[in-house]
Amino acid sequence: MVPAIHRPAQINVDLDAIKTNVKNEIKRLDNNQQLWAVVKANAYGHGAIPVAHAALEAGATGFCVATLDEGLQLREYGLPKPILVLGIVPTQWAPLAAQKNISLTVGSLEWLKKADKILTETGQTLKIHLGIDSGMGRIGFSEDDEFKAANVFLQDNPHFEVEGMFTHFSKADSADTSYLDYQVDRFNHMKDLLTVKPKYIHMANSAAAVFDRKIKTDIVRYGVAMYGLNPSSVPNGKDLESHVDLKPALSFTSELTFVKKIHSGYGVSYGATFVADKDQWIGTVPVGYADGWQRKMQGFKVKVGEDYCPIVGRVCMDQFMVLLPKEVPVGTKVELISADPKAPNNIKAVADQVDTIHYEIACLLSDRLPRVYQN
Ligand SMILES: *Cc1c(COP(=O)(O)O)cnc(C)c1O
């Protein structure tokens, strides 16, 4: 979608907040520990390139992405440092990754063997991180025998440089740490099977980091907390307390493009699910579900000027309506998502409204919304 730069609706990203979040976490790390900034999915909707530069400036020493293309984009924009693709990339692209000095996750012996054939032809060496499925049930080695065979395959193999070995937690944001402990044990068991020595061993995500799970490995893969958001991920649940200050970076603002008075019996939006019971003021905001502002946002209160006003009628593809307490001028500021975690329209409140987590809200904000950077 083409960004709508001639429409008053934008995502504001405070890069200082991102830098502060990165610095605050780095301060808590030991000297030999690194923070790699997770900038997948366009930096959780915040914009990969500006966020990556901010993270770098604040002391991040590597990047994690979800797809090879996201890594290629960072390289195209000249970002230095290691880049790790966290997902599985088809082996046919191993030469491209090697050429661009992008590290790939390996989760099976079969992948290694296929990639080895291709890299033998091209004569390249690919950096890899061995992904361990210690209980996430997603990708990675989970069987001892296969992992041991991979280890043998990698010994003195000129086509692979084993840069890392890592796992990913499924419940680091839970108050009950028994499953986390199980995953750590499982990972350590697999690590002991290795004779090739990866440069970096890593486990922690944001949750393990900010909830102080005492995971002292070489790299923290810092994602959602870098954006200033608490990694607790239960919709409508209470957040666990972060041990580090988190400053949200993102806000979402627009303006009223139309204001009118409607009379008793007059309906608003598709299906006329809202019908005025007296003379009422209605404002129109030029944002809809095509921007990632879902239909389930109906009923949520956004800030119009100084008032919190409910969304009335269905959210359309490109517009929605709010019930105003009084007549206000066209051009009045509308804040859909506040960067203040205490504001009633903070991103967690938005996520609660649609029964999801703020990760999903931020990622779904579409390309049609220009990203505007402060600091
Ligand atoms: C997305 C992801 C992360 C970052 O997770 P956060 O909860 O945002 O910190 C870390 N590691 C892996 C493997 C991931 O997929």
TrEMBL record:
It comes from Lactobacillus rodentium. The active site is at K40, Y270. Catalyzes the interconversion of L-alanine and D-alanine. May also act on other amino acids. The keyword Isomerase applies. Belongs to the alanine racemase family. PROSITE patterns: ALANINE_RACEMASE (PS00395). It comes from the Bacteria. Pathway: Amino-acid biosynthesis; D-alanine biosynthesis; D-alanine from L-alanine: step 1/1. Keywords: Isomerase, Pyridoxal phosphate. Its EC number is 5.1.1.1. It is an enzyme of class 5 (isomerase). HAMAP family: Ala_racemase. This is Alanine racemase. Residues 249-374 form the Alanine racemase C-terminal domain.
